[in-house]
């Protein structure tokens, strides 16, 4: 029987993108570059400076958690596949091939895989990055299947890393593993393509769920409007869009968020004390949506999270989980704000802006790019796949430095 890796490799090798798929690829390129450039001053840039291009670009691109998401696989596809494609000298077709394979493997892994605590961006990401790089390198279907198999040992990552630099770094490791696997396959390394099927079963996936029909990236990609976990896009949007007017923070007695339990799976920090933890906290996201005119980069700093008024509100937020659902946008969110004067305001929302069901407009994308830095719109004006790697290399220089065995532990 033909293995899943061989089936995916043949599909990726033969992919001829439609015009709308090329539009998606260009939007993904611009979105990924913008959120990566927005993190140029983050401390992770120095931490990751010794990593490969693919690993460094992916890690920095994910540290702000502002990159796109494939809803059906719960995987951040572009922040893995764009760096892998660029590091291997690829173009939109290579990106779409890698993104399509990553999405399909993520779907095969299923919600149960994510609910068990795996980070699907990494588990599906390593083989997806391998395909992107392998197609960029012009490999045959057989060599692409080998690259997928060689990436399997690195297909790992856990949600317990959320709220630390471990999350973006493990995304970088996935991108790097894929590029490394593709280069080893190009050099003649051998591997059993059946490794992908065996691994899928080991981690709770089902190879039978993979179908190489339909669009390159089935279901499309969700674009974030706020720099935090996707599970927070809907509650923040509900408070911003549906309230009749702003709520004074000191008038809040209690806020109750009622939501399907699956929609809060990655929100593991209930009393955050850092900006990174705040990106995975329902309680803080609600507080930020009440306090800040626009919950942007400034809302997710250590200082912002530790504001006395924010910490007070955090303790007044209660999350009630309802059963059912198998993705981050299952059902709807209902938020009830009880005020000290005895009044109550209730808002509901099913789809946040930027989701595939409410796709972003060109104006939305331009506004997001502008938010990522004063010079970012100019830097990305007319950017294409040929120029993108040089742009990242210039804006995020990095070279491996030997570590002395006597170097003092920074801790």
TrEMBL record:
Q: Which one of the record's GO molecular function terms can you name? A: lyase activity
User: Which residues belong to any copy of the MmgE/PrpD N-terminal domain?
Assistant: 58-196
Q: Name one Pfam family in it.
A: MmgE_PrpD_N
Q: Describe the location of the MmgE/PrpD C-terminal domain by residue ranges.
A: 226-376
Family per similarity comment: Belongs to the PrpD family.
What's the protein name?
2-methylcitrate dehydratase PrpD
């Amino acid at each position: 029987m033909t293995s899943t890796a061989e089936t995916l490799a043949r599909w990726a090798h033969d992919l001829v993108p439609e015009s709308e798929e090329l539009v998606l690829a260009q939007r993904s390129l611009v979105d990924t570059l913008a959120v990566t450039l927005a993190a140029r001053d983050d401390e992770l840039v120095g931490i990751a400076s010794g990593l490969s291009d693919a690993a460094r670009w992916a890690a920095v691109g994910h540290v702000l958690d502002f990159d796109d998401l494939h809803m059906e696989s719960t995987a951040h596809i572009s922040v893995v596949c764009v760096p892998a494609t660029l590091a291997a000298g690829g173009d939109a077709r290579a990106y779409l091939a890698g993104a399509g394979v990553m999405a399909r493997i993520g779907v095969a892994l299923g919600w149960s895989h994510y609910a068990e605590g795996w980070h699907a961006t990494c588990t599906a990401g390593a083989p997806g990055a391998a395909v992107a790089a392998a197609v960029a390198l012009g490999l045959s279907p057989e060599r692409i299947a080998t690259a997928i198999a060689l990436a399997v040992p690195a297909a790992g990552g856990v949600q317990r890393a959320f709220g630390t630099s471990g999350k973006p770094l493990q995304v970088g490791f996935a991108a790097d593993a894929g590029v490394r696997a593709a280069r080893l396959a190009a050099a003649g390394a051998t591997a059993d393509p059946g490794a992908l099927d065996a691994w899928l079963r080991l981690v709770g996936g089902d190879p039978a769920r993979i179908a190489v029909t339909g669009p390159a990236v089935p279901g499309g990609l969700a674009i974030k409007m706020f720099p935090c976990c996707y599970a927070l896009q809907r509650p923040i949007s509900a408070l911003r869009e549906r309230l009749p007017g702003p709520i004074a923070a000191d008038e809040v007695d209690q806020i109750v968020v009622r939501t399907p339990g699956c929609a809060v799976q990655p929100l593991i920090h209930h009393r955050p004390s850092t900006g990174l933890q705040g990106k995975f906290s329902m309680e803080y996201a609600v507080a930020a949506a009440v306090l800040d005119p626009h919950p942007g980069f400034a809302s997710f700093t250590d200082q912002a999270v530790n504001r006395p008024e924010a910490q007070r509100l955090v303790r007044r937020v209660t999350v009630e989980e309802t059963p059912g659902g198998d993705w981050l946008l299952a059902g709807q969110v209902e938020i009830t704000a009880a005020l000290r004067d005895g009044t109550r305001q209730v808002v509901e929302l099913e789809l946040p802006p930027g989701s595939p069901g409410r796709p972003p407009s060109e104006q939305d994308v331009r506004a997001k790019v502008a938010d990522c830095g004063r010079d970012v719109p100019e830097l990305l004006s007319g950017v294409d796949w040929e120029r993108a790697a040089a742009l990242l290399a210039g804006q995020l220089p990095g070279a491996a430095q030997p570590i002395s065995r006597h170097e003092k532990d920074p801790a």
